[in-house]
Amino acid sequence: MIKISIPHFSLSQICQSGQCFRMYPLSPLSPERERYQILAGNRKLEIEQQGQICLFHCEKEPFEKFWYNYFDLNADYDIYQNQIDPKDRFLLHTARFGWGIHILRQDLWEMIVSFLISQ
């Protein structure tokens, strides 16, 4: 199991963003603690989140070789949000609304199918 703190990260927002359709909420462990199952290609992951703390239920190697990139964890989303022009009220509101969405680095075929389904 891998335990890390991830700012600007929300499993529920990512799940509801329409980026993928193989991310499933599991029974909540508590009102503040969520658990999801994610399928990507032939991989499966269960992940829990409580605040900024995330528990990836996998070994170190698959986390480092696949899931770290899949969830775009090397990007600093705080920098992105701080680059928004303070005069752009629409974009500021949008960034606040989706504060926890990360761009998933999906397989091209899965991304195309997800896009077609969303349409």
Describe the structure.
The protein has 119 residues and is an alpha+beta fold. Helix content is 36%, strand content 24%. The chain is built from 5 helices and 5 strands; from the N terminus they run E-H-E-E-E-E-H-H-H-H. The chain has a 5-stranded antiparallel β-sheet with strand order 1-5-4-3-2. The model has no long low-confidence stretch (mean pLDDT 89).
Question: Which terms would index this structure?
Answer:
119 residues; alpha+beta; globular; five-stranded antiparallel beta sheet; 5 helices
Architecture blueprint of SSEs:
Layout: E1 2-5, H1 11-16, E2 23-25, E3 33-40, E4 43-50, E5 53-57, H2 60-70, H3 77-82, H4 89-97, H5 108-118
Antiparallel strand pairs: 1-5, 2-3, 3-4, 4-5
Structural class: alpha+beta
Unreliable stretches covering 5 or more consecutive residues: none
What is the average of the pLDDT values? Answer: 89
Count of DSSP E strands?
5
The share of residues in helices is 25-40%
* N-to-C span: 36 Å
Over all CA atoms, what is the radius of gyration? 15 Å
Report the total helices.
5
Query: How do the strands of the widest beta sheet line up side by side?
Result: 1-5-4-3-2
Largest sheet: 5 strands, antiparallel
Classify the beta-strand content into a percent band. 15-25%
Write the H/E string, N to C. Answer: EHEEEEHHHH
Q: Quick one: overall form?
A: globular
